[in-house]
Amino acid sequence: MVRRKANKPKKYPSNTDIRIFQPGYMGHLDTDEYTFLYKELKKRDGLRKRWFFKEGAQRLSEFHIRHVALYGCPHTEECQCTETLKDLKSEEKKWNQMIEN
Question: CA distances (Å), 96 to each of 34, 62, 78, in order?
């Protein structure tokens, strides 16, 4: 008889949608989503690479994280967006106000 391995404990909180790790999927991040994603990016090299961070990058820019979450691409000359970090954060506030009403 084959012995089954015990289930590993989950890495993430139970209400976490793991699609948050896919660039461009989540759109505007709320504060909790941003904090969670930032912590995971700090820990995981492969995830940083998928999110267009340079290898060995020490600083993880909030603008970069929010931009990739919204558009799925890094903010470069080829990118057609005109967003700033202030714009990305203000969209979060607008979204939260819409949900509350």
Answer: 14, 19, 30
72-78: long-range contacts, CB 8 A cutoff, minimum separation 24 = 72/23, 72/24, 72/25, 73/23, 73/24
For residue 77, pLDDT over 80 is answered with: no
Q: Residue 70: CB partners within 8 Å, gap ≥ 6?
A: 24, 26, 27, 28, 29, 83, 88
On whether the CB atoms of residues 29 and 37 are closer than 8 A, the answer is yes
Rounded Cα distance, 96 and 71, in Å: 20
Is the pTM higher than 0.70? The answer reads no
Nearest 5°: the CA angle 100, 36, 75 is 90
